[in-house]
Amino acid sequence: MSDSENTKGHGQSVPEEDPEQPAQNPTGEAQSQGEPGLTVDDILGTPQSEGVEAADAASSTSEDTAPEGENAAERLANERLDDLRRLQAEFVNFKNRTNREKEQLRDFVSADMITALLPVLDDIEAARKAGDLTDGPFAAIATKLEETLTRQGLERLGEVGAVFDPNVHEAVLQQPTDEVEPDHVSMVLRSGFKIGDRVVRAAQVAVAAQP
Questions:
Q1: How far apart are CA 15 and CA 13, in angstroms?
Q2: How far is CA 72 from the centre of its chain?
Q3: What is the C-alpha to C-alpha distance for residues 154 and 112, in angstroms, rounded to an integer?
Q4: Which of 199, 201, 166 has its CA nearest to residue 185?
Q5: How far, in Å, CA of 78 to CA of 84, rounded?
Q6: What is the percentage of the chain residues whose pLDDT exceeds 90?
Q7: DSSP character for 173?
Q8: From the CB of residue 74, how many other CB atoms can be counted at a distance below 10 Å?
Q9: How far apart are CA 170 and CA 207, in angstroms?
Q10: pTM for this prediction
Q11: CA-based nearest residue to 113, from 151, 154, 70
Q12: Rounded to whole angstroms, how far apart are CA atoms 200 and 114?
């Protein structure tokens, strides 16, 4: 028997282990002597894992802050929209108020002009009742004047047979008559005028009563 072989058991030779060869585990893989194996903590602690965790944290933070930014922008947009609606409503109200004031001013100016022309209108009416303005240049001038004032909104008040209205009529006397119903205008003593809704002068009338 040589020195390089040892006998064991029934005389079978067993090769000696080479000290320079690494030991093998049961699965046949060589394991380095003196170097411990990698653990789960070592794998999770690598720089690559730390970068992934940082990316996940940043993504989670952006997802949490995004809805808050969108809500703030939506609230700001709604506030600006409400401001625009209020401004529009104020402008419409201002426009309507201005139009009413213009109409009222026009009525006041026209009423002042009619008040100044009342004596002329009374003379024209008296001359027409007397038959002095049936024809001729003065009749044409009087007609043009009345037509012009009518286009400006002038309306004559006082008509026989109309219901007595204290807002536009001034009752001077009561006249017993069967020709007109009671509490109706039986005679117009002086015509009245109004322009728009403003009464420039009430009509002087006689009111019918039971005879």
A1: 7
A2: 22
A3: 12
A4: 166
A5: 10
A6: 39
A7: E
A8: 10
A9: 9
A10: 0.53
A11: 154
A12: 8
Could you give the CA distance from residue 177 to residue 209 in angstroms, rounded to a whole number?
6
CA dihedral over 83, 84, 89, 94, signed as positive or negative = positive
> Per-residue pLDDT for 44 more than 90?
no
Question: Cβ distance 165 to 202 under 8 Å?
Answer: no
30 - beta bridge partners? 24
Retrieve residue 136's tokens: 């001729």
| pLDDT tens track for 64-103 | 555 666 788 888 888 888 999 999 999 999 999 999 888 8
Amino acid at 54: A
Residues counted in the chain: 211
Both tokens of residue 93? 């109200």
**Dist CA 15 CA 19 (whole Å):** 12
pLDDT at 65: 53
In this structure, what are the phi and psi dihedrals at residue 198, rounded to the nearest 5 degrees?
-100, 125
CA distance 101 to 2: 135
Q: How far is C-alpha 160 from the geometric centre of its chain's CA atoms?
A: 51
Question: What strand order describes the sheet that includes 185-190?
Answer: 169-176, 203-209, 185-190
Query: Distance between CA atoms of 53 and 47, rounded to whole angstroms?
Result: 10
Q: What is the CA radius of gyration of the chain?
A: 57
